[in-house]
Structures are given as C-alpha cells and as structure tokens.
Amino acid sequence: MPFRLRRGAFALPAVIAVSALGLAACSSGGDPEPSGSAGGGETTEAMEPVELSFLVDNAETSIGVVEALTAAYTAAHPEVTFAIEQRPGGTEGDNIIKTRLQTGEMTDLFFYNSGSLFQALAPTQTLLPIDDIENAGAIQDTYKSGVTADGVLYGVPAGTAMGGAMLYNIPLYEELGLEVPTTWDEFMANNQVILDESDAAPVIQTFKDTWTSQLFVLGDFANVLAADPEWADKYTANEVKYADGSPAIDGFVHQQEVFDAGYLNKDFASATFADGARMVATGEGAHYPMLTFALAEIQANAPDNVDDVGVFAIPGESGPSPLTTWLAAGIYAPATTENADAVKAFMNWVATPEACDVQTEAVGAQGPYFVDGCTLPDDVPQMVADMLPYFDEGNTGPALEFLSPIKGPALENITVEVGSGIRSAEDGAALYDEDVKKQAQQLGLEGW
Amino acid sequence: MTMTTTTSQTGSASAWPAEPEPTGKRRRAKKRSPYPMWFYLPAAIIYGALFVVPTFASFYFSLTRWTIFDSQFIGLDNFRTFFSEPYLFESLINTIIFATITSGMKVVLGLLIAVFLSSQIIARGYLRSVVFFPVLVSAVGIGVTFSVLMDPFDGLINKVLAVFGIEGPGWLTDPNLALISVALTDVWRGVGIAVLIYIAGIVAIPQEYFEAAKVDGASATKAFWNITLPLMRPATTTVIILSLIGGLRSFDLIWTMTRGGPGFSSDVLASVVYKQYQAGFYGLSTAGNVVLFVLVAAIIIPLFWFLNRKEVDR
Lengths: 448, 314
Description:
The complex is a heterodimer of chains A (448) and B (314). Chain A is an alpha/beta fold and 448 residues long.
C-alpha cells in the first residue's frame, strides 16, 4: 500500500487512476474494520475501539487540516483512531470518489468539494444524511446550501472560505506608485504601467496546470451576480447563456484582452501553479488570478514573501467589484459506512469552534470559517487581511458552482484556448454553453 | 485487443483459400478431434463474460444516458452530440492524423534502420539493442521525460537549439505542433518493434537471391529495390497493421504529455473518451468507444484484406 501511495504523489495521472482503483479493490479485503458500532454500541461514546478510514486529496492544506482534526479527535477520544488515505486532486480525484462511492468501496469519511461537485455525487443515493447531528445548527446557512441535496444535510465544513481573486505583488505596486484597481479599466491601466516601467509580467497565467486558467471566468461571477442577482437560477433553468453577452461573457472577454495586449508572462503555456505562486510572491509577475488557497503554496515555497502578496477582487465593469467566494470543502460519509455512529460523532465535533482552532493552528488562518463562534487570530497573513473587509462589508458573491449544479468539464480547456489566443472569447463562451448542456442532461435537469 | 485477434483470424482465413488442399485437410482433421467439445467451455465462459458480453452491452449503453444506478434510453443522441461538437469531431481527425504519421514513419524509419542494422557494421548487436530499448520503457515514463525535454524554455531540446542560435518552438504548447511532437515521441518509442520485425524479415530472405544479383552485376540499391523490398511485403503488412491499430487507440503518451491540450488541439478519440468518462458522461463516453471500435474496424479490416490479397497474388 505505501508503495502505491508514493506513486500517487508523483501526480502521473494514468498511474494514479490505475493504482487508486487498486487501492479501492484492496480496501474491502485488505484492512478489515473493527465493527465498533455494528457490534451493538448504542452510544457514540462506546468504549469499543474503532478505526475510521479517511480519504483526502493530496493538497498540502487538505492533508494538514485532516491530519490535525483527526489527531485532535483521537487525543480526546482514544478509542477512535483514523487511517488516512490520500488521493490525487482534480478530475482524477473526482473519478476516484465517484467510482468508489458507486461501487460501495468508499472509506468511512472523505474530504471533498462542496457545491456542484458534491451534487454530482448523487448524494441522496450514496451519502450518509447527518441532519440529526447536534451541531448542525451551528453551521452557517450559506455553507449548508452547498452540502444539502433535496433538503437533507450531508457534510460539515473543513477549512475556510476562499476567494477567487487577483493576487498581486505589493512591493511592485508601491514601487510604481499604483493603486488597487476597482474596475476593469483601472486594472488594464495598471497593467500597461507595469509593462512599460518594470521587468515584471503584468499578468501571470499558468496553463500547464489547466485548471488555473478558469479564474478569469469563475472569479468574475460576483460581478455577474451584482449585475443580475437571478442569473444563476436562470442559468440552471436554461434561460440564459454565457454567450448571450455582458455581464456573463465578460470573464471570457477579459481573458482574451490580457492575452491580446501582450500582458502575459512569456512562459504562460508551460508554467505550473507552483511557478505562478512563486512569481507573484517574488515580483516576477504583478497579478495572478487565483483562488486564495494559493496562500498555503506561498507559505510553503516562498515563506519570506508571504506578506508581499495582497488580494483584490477580480475587477468588473463598474466598481467597487465584489469578491467571488468559494465555500470550504466538506467532510462526508458514504451511506455504506459500517461505523455510522462514530462517524457522526466525529462530524459533530468538526462543527465546533474548538475544531476551527485546531485547523488554524495546523495550517494557519486561511480565511473566515463557516461555523458559528469560530474566530481568527489577530495576526493573519496579508492575503487574509485583504480578504476580510469584503466579508465584513458583505461585498461578496458565491461562485456559480455553489448556486447551480451545472459546471461543464471542458471549461479549463476552453479558457486555455481563449487565454492563449487559439479561440475568440465569443466562440469560447458558445462552446462552453454546449459543454454544460451535457452536464445538465446527465443530471436530469428540467428544461434541457 | 479483441480487435486484433478477431481480425487476424478472419483475415488469415480469407487469405488462405488460394491453396485449397491444406485447408481442407485441416478442416477434416478438426472434425475428427479426439477431444470433447466441452473442453472449450472454460475458455468460452471467460471470453464470453469478459469480452463478448461487455462489448454488446456497450453497444446498448452507448444509446443511453446512464449512471451505476439507472439508465435512460435516448436513441442516437450521444452520437449526435459526439459528431456535432467541434472538439469531439476534431478528435476524430486528430486520431487519424496521429495514426497515419506514426504508422508511416515507423514503416519508413523501421525499414531503413533494419537494413542498416542487418549489414556488416561495427557494434551491430549493441546498436540493435539500443534501437529496441525504448520499447521496454513504460509509456508514462517516456511521456514525462519527453515533456521535460520539450519544455519551451528549460527543456534540453530548445537549450541545444539555442546553442546554434535557433529559437526552438513550444513543442507541446504550440497548438499546431503539439500533436506532431507527441507523434514523433511515439515513433521514437515504437520504431524498435518495426525494426525487429523487419530484421527478422531480412534475415529470412535466402542469400542466394543476393548472390545471384551480384553475379548479374546489380548494385546494392538495385538489390534493395528488387529483392529486399518485394520480399519484405509480409513484414511491412505486419508493421502497418500493428502500428496503425496502436496509433488509433493511442492514449498513454498523449495523456501524459499534453492531456489533449493546449485546449483541444492534441485530443484524440481515446483521450476524449477518458475525459467524458471522468466528467461522469458515461453514455457519451461509451458512444465514443463505439465510434473508436467502428473506426478501427473500418480502417483495419479492409486494409488487412487488401494487403494480404496482394501478398497472395504475388
């Protein structure tokens, strides 16, 4: 088993898919689970020892959060131990989760996205309902909407809210005397100054990791929502399209504009996410549209530059532009788990301020939590400090994937094309509208 | 793999009737087999359960939109989607381009290298193993290695070109070049097999032909065109068929090197099928597999028949 896991860490997709299936096959016969609750343990505090298996993706923050939570829980409840298993992220990971859930081979607990990816798991058929846990009421409603299907709650939040935002290099801004832009035109004016007066690339793009290309579109959604609050519902009902024009298409158009203006780093086609995080931290590039979870990457690989990176909302046509936010990932249990009581007790504990503090201690303050009573320390990294005012002022909007179950799988390929001048913004938006049609049909939505 | 075995069986059957005697004898011998028919049963069960049933089930499921739990019959909608979406259709074209390039280059390069390696040269055995060596390495390893070598800025290939003052292209990042770069890597990986088959073919040519040609005063080039090449037709057929099937079904190298990118510019049928499956579009991905199956069959069966027919006529 460890050999397989190590291979997974290399992120070689084909190998991973195969080895993960191997893992899935092993886990039923390989490590028999002590049947704690099945043996008749009535209460969650049953003294009978139980080991819960836990599947988590191999991102640094996810592992950090899960390891800290499980270790703290075992310290308080010595009879409950955990066996943590890693999986790759991205679509490879989606595939593994879906396959294991549908074949009944899922671990007792798993860590996975909320929102549309959660909806795509067919939660009503595959997941364990947890409406009856004591602390369900402490979870904020915004979050609950991302882990609820047919009115039933399935997950508890792990980690914090994220922003899909523009990371920027603060020393460069100070040196050139620039101000944080609130509209797209101001942003483009800043880019021109950076291009003319410094060696830095105005905008960083990293298309080797294709998923990083989607931020201009996905991170622009709060602007769309500000212009049309009903957009997401109409989108789910097949009444509006990205290709219909502004405001929805703006994300695609902006992405094309930065390419056409020659603002991108010269290795945009072959750079990786790690490169992008490094470039914005060290000032090789000025702006990097990215999820704020890049903070963990910067903390790990450019610790001296953590406070050189600031955050502002991806600018829309008119300011001040709201910040597009992502809900925290969730911890879920499959309906097939044999340790439902122990699993629920653990999930109940995760929804407490105590668990929030455990996470803060393990991975640092990454953003606001979704559990009532959770607080952040006074001393937070610059990126989080820049993000908090948006939350305090309510100047935020959720990303589309938390308002609509529809997210087409080819978006990252399309945004790579638009962002490298292969396809025009209009064509890209129209192609994406075709792509989501398949998703809507697969989900069996009405009106498609 | 099913494809290969079934086509080669039917293919050789249609190739043989030119010599009726031995076939007749063999058929009669089969009828008088001392073994009872149920000896075939274990093989039939395994083949049926693992190949025949899934194959026919996939024909049905390609007409549905399904999950593990249920399926909804939607007729030919999946195929309509497949052929109407520009990038899905593009993948079909890319598949054919990829298969043609790799197959063609393996034939030409394989033959040239084989002729070279079967002449009297120094370190022949060593060179033969060097040429064959890439075949032994895993495709994923090769893919990762070459994507590092082909990096537009830090890659070895462009660094070497820079020494000569040439600014190398983005091998895997230029949409016009990505598919070609992967195809070239595939040729590097697979040419060893072609060489092996050709060397076996060359060695099997009786030396008398060459001696007779020499006595008649034929040059080396003439001997190649008039003796080696025609007598290598069976080897060429094998190489073309094998590399074409391999090229049409190619996935591992493309996925590790470009993942079908940038955008969709190096997507082939197999990578599209995989992506649709990952996205949870099981019906569409099954339909893609059926398209792939039909495409391979539609190209290989007539080609095999054509190439073998020529062989018999000779």
